[in-house]
Design goal:
Layout: E1 3-7, H1 19-29, E2 32-39, H2 53-60, E3 68-75, H3 81-88, E4 95-99, E5 102-103, E6 106-107, H4 119-136, E7 142-143, H5 166-178, E8 182-186, H6 196-209, E9 213-217, H7 230-240, E10 243-248, E11 251-254
Parallel strand pairs: 1-2, 2-3, 3-4, 4-7, 7-8, 8-9, 9-10
Antiparallel strand pairs: 5-6, 10-11
Helix pairs in contact: 4-5, 5-6, 6-7
Length: 267
């Protein structure tokens, strides 16, 4: 079964999608979905990107099935690792994505994170933070959107280029593998054809260096983008020799063969 493993609903501060709409869209696509609402403990705007886990499960447990799984996207920050662990350790999540959205109390979507600083400086700080977190956050299942910073930076070339940051990327991948974690293919970046060559090198390095497992998620915040660019992600994974999985009760379940539409001419 195909699974979109990164979907946000009303429990995320930046999503207005109801669970009912998400489930309906999954059925239309004949695709499983994993709900992964945001939990960024210590977010600089008080009350945002946090939810009550008891309320979450009380509200969503009735929807849970073989095709609807319940997860969370954790905003990883070293200064809050124990608070985060305590918050989620006893919760019956199927799947935990680890991501970084905030550094030094600045959301990476805010322009001030980049003001007066070079790409080398901001990307190096972001990647070194990722490396520290994936080593410490041993309770995540997959590292979310390694190239998240590329969405918001304002440089001439926002792409995460492997040879420019190879030491950082290799360090992240080695630590992920040591903790037996997966790496996410976040399909939002596949909307941009110019991003694909850079992404290809990163995922090929993951395959060559240590990794094999990848999760695929649309990062959907509305029903229309659930499953978007999924076939392209499957074929990117196949081209790189990676195995797509989804997680149920924190255990990887294999996803079927790729659709063979990902033309290497695109790369």
């Amino acid at each position: 079964m195909f699974f979109d493993t990164h979907v946000h609903t009303l429990f995320s501060s930046d999503s207005a999608m109801s669970m009912q709409r998400a489930v309906k869209r999954g059925k239309q696509l004949n695709m499983g979905i994993t709900i992964t609402d945001h939990m960024d403990i210590g977010y600089p705007t008080n009350g945002m990107y946090i939810f009550d886990t008891k309320d979450y499960f009380n509200t969503y447990e009735k929807y849970r099935s073989s095709k609807v799984l319940l997860g969370v996207e954790l905003g990883m920050r070293m200064e809050f690792v124990e608070k985060i662990r305590e918050k989620i350790i006893d919760c019956p999540f199927d799947y935990i994505i680890g991501s970084i959205h905030v550094i030094n109390d600045i959301d990476l979507s805010w322009s001030k994170y980049y003001e007066g600083r070079t790409k080398q400086v901001t990307y190096s700080q972001y990647l070194s933070s990722l490396a520290a977190c994936v080593e410490t956050f041993d309770f995540i299942d997959s590292l979310g959107h390694i190239d998240y910073i590329c969405r918001h930076a304002n440089y001439a070339d926002n792409n995460l280029i492997y040879h420019e940051f190879s030491e950082y990327i290799d360090d992240i991948f080695i630590k992920l593998a040591q903790n037996e974690k997966a790496l996410e293919i976040n399909t939002r970046r596949l909307r941009n054809p110019e991003a694909i060559p850079a992404l290809l090198k990163i995922y090929k390095r993951w395959a060559k260096l240590v990794g094999k497992l990848v999760t695929i998620g649309s990062d959907a915040h509305n029903a229309s983008t659930i499953g978007s660019f999924y076939a392209e992600a499957l074929d990117l994974a196949a081209f790189c020799g990676l195995q797509p999985v989804y997680f149920k009760n924190h255990q990887p379940e294999y996803i079927g063969k790729h659709s063979e539409i990902f033309n290497t001419a695109k790369l």
